[in-house]
Write a structure and sequence with these properties.
This protein has helices at residues 7-22, 42-58, 70-82, 101-105, 119-126, 144-155, 176-185, 199-208, 263-278, 286-291; strands spanning 3-4, 30-36, 61-67, 88-91, 131-133, 138-139, 165-169, 189-193, 211-214, 233-236, 254-255. It is of the alpha/beta class. The protein folds into two domains: 17-142 and 265-281, Leucine Dehydrogenase, chain A, domain 1 (Rossmann fold); 145-258, NAD(P)-binding Rossmann-like Domain (Rossmann fold), CATH 3.40.50.720.
Length: 292
């Protein structure tokens, strides 16, 4: 029997936890989104608008900051870093500037980096270090999409991560790279495939995998469902759909559904990261929340 990853329910459990923790704060959490005008794509604008709506539902402050170019972008980020009323910063990539996105990622102070893309946060992820400042109780944050995938797999333990063989069809800074590190930290063996991976290597890797995560933004990309082994977990992070989940019904152990995407959990994880940026927070186990 194929289990469906219920992203709506999982996101709600995290939002409930966020509301509980926010009620204990003596201030209202505040988030800022940052983009470069005339260079941002439609997907980023849609994501920004969803973040604003989510913040309003949570009762959080959210300001939308726009810059006309690189110099103004840097000024805006520096101002937000220094603004004590702002607790988290989200830069909407890709920026389309001469300066690389990776360089811009390091301009956001790690304490407000709710995307987990600063080199310090990513470096601590490599070391499996959980605290940005242990004495202050400030936790490290990790990229929200990668965190969403891990939490989804943990909430539906059809396949245990520890000891699993995993193929990730993505090698980006926001998804594939951090997700691979997170799963390795939890005991998995991980292979990452991307546009330079030969087709026969991709097929061989997927056929052996206990867990397959695909996040290819190209609408023309399709993963052959016949490659998925019986009982495997398949998490499709892409918006347009990388694999026909109907063809996996009754064969895969766990799938994500087109009408219940992991993006809901991704946004919830970003607000969990925002709570961590607000100060010491306890860990949250959605499996425990599901049964209480």
């Amino acid at each position: 029997m194929t289990e469906r990853l219920d992203c709506r329910a999982l996101a709600k459990r995290y939002r409930d936890w966020i509301l509980e923790r926010a009620a204990l704060l003596p201030f209202t959490p505040s988030l800022a989104t940052v983009l470069v005008k005339n260079r941002v794509d439609a997907g980023s604008l849609q994501y920004r608008d969803m973040i604003v709506k989510d913040a309003a539902k949570l009762g959080f402050d959210c300001r939308s900051v726009e810059a006309s170019g690189e110099a103004e972008l840097i000024e805006r980020i520096e101002a937000l870093n220094a603004d004590v009323s702002v607790h988290g910063i989200v830069v909407l990539y890709p920026l389309g500037l001469m300066r690389s996105d990776e360089d811009i990622m390091d301009l956001v102070t790690p304490r407000k980096d709710v995307e987990g893309l600063h080199s310090i946060n990513l470096g601590y992820l490599i070391k499996y270090r959980r605290y940005l400042d242990r004495d202050a109780g400030l936790k490290c944050v990790v990229p929200a999409t990668a965190k969403a995938v891990v939490k989804g797999l943990q909430a539906h333990p059809v396949i245990g991560i520890d000891g699993a063989f995993v193929t990730i069809v993505n090698n980006s800074m926001r998804v594939g790279k951090p997700l691979g590190l997170m799963l390795e930290n939890l005991g998995a063996t991980v292979i990452k495939c991307y546009d330079r991976t030969r087709p026969e290597i991709l097929e061989s890797s997927v056929r052996r995998s206990d867990i397959v995560v695909t996040a290819v933004p190209d609408p023309s990309f399709r993963l052959n469902p016949e490659w998925i082994r019986d009982g495997a977990a398949v998490v499709d992070v892409s918006y347009q759909g990388n694999v026909d989940v109907r063809a996996l019904d009754g064969r895969a152990g766990l799938v994500t559904m087109p009408d219940n995407r992991i993006g809901r959990v991704t946004r919830a994880m970003m607000f969990v990261n925002l709570m961590y940026s607000c100060g010491p927070q306890p860990s949250f186990d959605p499996r425990a929340a599901a049964v209480r």
